[in-house]
Amino acid sequence: MPAVGASVAEARALVRRELGRWGLDELVDDCSLIVSELASNVVRHGGNVFTLRLGSNGTWVYGEVFDQGEGVPHQREADIDSIGGRGLLIVDELADDWGVAGSGRGGKTVWFLAGAGSPSPLPVVPHQMRIAVG
């Protein structure tokens, strides 16, 4: 997806569509907001394009946003008067787990795991996961 504001809405729509199709309606709001924050970070700080990947084993959702940007995202304390700076705090609050992985070819992937119920059974054998790419 191009790293422009309209792609953030497109990424949220992909999350809503795929999680709905997978029967994970209870995770749609949290995952949509997580993806929105990660995609917004790419628009502000990343490269020219980003890739969103979603996977599910039926209970848990694994998502990742990859971009070619050089910087590594990190949580920071937002100034009370600032408009931005809270994205990763929101991700940290909503996701069961998340992190950043560098890429050997440049760029980075910010991933998250969100689910309901008992602790995650992941890692899951890849062929058992449903995948959507945007």
Helix-strand sequence: HHEEHEEE
Taking pLDDT < 50 over at least 5 consecutive residues as the criterion, the unreliable ranges are 124-128
Number of helices: 3
What do we call the CATH topology? Heat Shock Protein 90
Q: What's the CATH H-level superfamily name?
A: Histidine kinase-like ATPase, C-terminal domain
The biggest beta sheet reads: 5 strands, antiparallel
Query: Regarding CATH, which class?
Result: Alpha Beta
Strand tally: 5
Strand content: 15-25%
Number of domains: 1
Shape: globular
The CATH architecture name reads: 2-Layer Sandwich
Helicity level: 25-40%
In round numbers, the mean pLDDT is 81
Q: How far apart are the termini?
A: 7 Å
The radius of gyration is: 14 Å
* Alpha-beta classification: alpha+beta
Q: State the strand order across the main sheet.
A: 3-4-2-1-5
What this model shows, in words?
This protein has 134 residues and is an alpha+beta fold. The chain has a single domain, classed as Histidine kinase-like ATPase, C-terminal domain (Heat Shock Protein 90, 2-Layer Sandwich), CATH 3.30.565. Helix content is 32%, strand content 25%. α2 (28-45) runs antiparallel to α3 (87-94). The longest helix has 18 residues, at 28-45.
Describe this structure in a few short sentences:
The protein is an alpha+beta fold and 134 residues long.
Topology:
Layout: H1 5-21, H2 28-45, E1 50-56, E2 60-67, H3 87-94, E3 97-102, E4 108-115, E5 130-133
Antiparallel strand pairs: 1-2, 1-5, 2-4, 3-4
Helix pairs in contact: 1-2, 2-3
